Amino acid sequence: MSHIRESDRFETRAIHAGQEADAENGAIMTPVYFTSTYKQDAPAQPRQGYEYSRTSNPTRTALQENLASMEGGRWGLAFSSGLAATNALLDRLVPGDHVVAGNDLYGGTYRIFKRVFERYGIRFTFVDTTDAGQVERAIEPATKYVYIETPSNPLLRLTDIAAIAALTKRAKKLLVVDNTFATPYLQRPLALGADLVLHSLTKYLGGHSDVVGGALIGNDDKVRDELAFFQNAVGGTPGPMDCFLVMRGTKTLAIRMDRHGENALAIARTLEEHPLVERVHYPGLASHAQHALAKRQMKSFGGMVSFELRGGVAAGNAFASSTRLFTLAESLGGVESLVETPPSMTHASIPAETRRAAGLADGLVRLSVGIEHLDDLQADIAQALDKAREAAGELATRRA
Ligand SMILES: *Cc1c(COP(=O)(O)O)cnc(C)c1O
pTM, whole model, 2 decimals? Predict the structure, then answer.
C-alpha cells in the first residue's frame, strides 16, 4: 500500500514514510484526526481497527510508521513524552527484575528509575557504559534491559553500541538505546544490534521547540504487543496535533541535522582555541577521547557542545547571561540556539562533590547549537566570552 520502497534513502523515507495522499480527496498532508472515537458498522466491528483514540488514532499511526521507517525498525509506538515512553518500557517489568543503566543518563530518566520504579521492587545498577566490561559484569540472571544513552548529556561521552549489543545478545538481554541526542539520521542503533530505540520527540525530531513527545521503536512483535498494551492501559499517548507537529519536524530532520552539525563543529573548534576555555566536549573534535568511535558509529556529530570555562560557576553564569542569540533555557534540539549551565540548572540537584567527581566542572556550559547563520552565532559567543572573562577576572582580583 505504501509508495515507499525498502531501497529509498533516509531523506526520502523521513518525508514519505507513513504519509499517503488521502484516497478520496488527494490531500498530501496527513489529516489531524481530532476524534476520540470512531463509528462502528456493527457492534464490535470497528473500521480499520480504530475504536478509541487512546488505543489508536490515524494521525498517530502515520507518525509511528514514519518513526519506524527512519530508525529501520518494524514498528514504532508514540507517547505523550519521552518519559512516558520510558514508563511503558518499565511497565513490562515485575518486582525483582533488574536493569543495567548508564551512570550519566538524562536526569528525568534517572528520576523515574530511582523514585518511581524502585518503589515497585525493580532494581537498577548504574555503570559507566563507555566501558563494556562494567556493563557485562553488572548483568544478572534477573536483568531485563541494558539501558544506554549515547552521546550522553552534558559531557557528550559515547557508548559503543555494537560492542554492548554483542554482549547483550550473548546474555539474551534487551539493549535499549536512548537515541535522542543523535537522531536516526546520525545513528541507527537497531542496525548496530540494539533491540529497542527510545526517543524524546521533544528535541531534534520535533525540532522546533513546540511539542513534547516520546517514542519506542523496535523489531520484535511480541515486545511490541506488550508495550502497546501498556501504551493503551496506562494511557500516556500523544494527541493528534502533537503527532502532526512531530511529522512536520521529521521531514526536515536531515537538513537540520547537517546544519546543526556544521555549526556545532565550527563553534567547538573556535572554543577550543580560546584562552578562557579549559576543555571542549564534542565528538567531532579530534581531541575527543572517543573521536574514532564517533566516526564509526555516527554519520556526523550533532548539535550539542559543552565546554568548561576557567573561572568556575561565576564565569559560566556570566557567559550564559550575556548571549543574545543563544537563549538561556533548558531543553535542546530546536532550530534556535540555546545555552544552559548544568551545574546551576539541569544538574543542580546533584551534590557539588558528586558532580565534580562525575567530570562536571563548575564552569561547564552546554550549548544546543541551532541553525542560525554561523557568523552571527560565532559573534555572539565571542562577546559572551568577553563578559565571562571580565567575571573571571573580577573574581581573581577579589581573591588576590
Ligand atoms: C528530554 C530527554 C528525555 C525525556 O524526554 P521528555 O520528552 O522531556 O519526557 C529523555 N532522554 C533524553 C536524552 C532527553 O534529552
Answer: 0.96
Each residue of 227-258: pLDDT tens digit? 999 999 999 999 999 999 999 999 999 999 99
Please, are residues 210 and 249 in contact by the beta-carbon 8 Å criterion?
Answer: no
Rounded distance between C-alpha atoms, residue 74 and residue 56, angstroms:
17
Report all structural domains of the chain as residue ranges with CATH numbers, in order of start: 10-250 (3.40.640.10), 253-399 (3.90.1150.10)
Express each pLDDT in 302-332 by its tens digit: 999 999 999 999 999 999 999 999 999 999 9
What are the CA-CA distances from residue 132 to residues 146, 148, 151 (Å)?
11, 11, 15
* 238 DSSP 8-state letter: P
- Which residues have C-beta atoms less than 6 Å from ligand 1? 81-83, 106, 108-109, 149, 153, 178, 180-181, 200, 202-203, 212, 214
**Which residue of 67, 106, 116, 331 sits with most ligand 1 atoms within 8 Å of its CB, as the best mutation to test the pocket?**
106
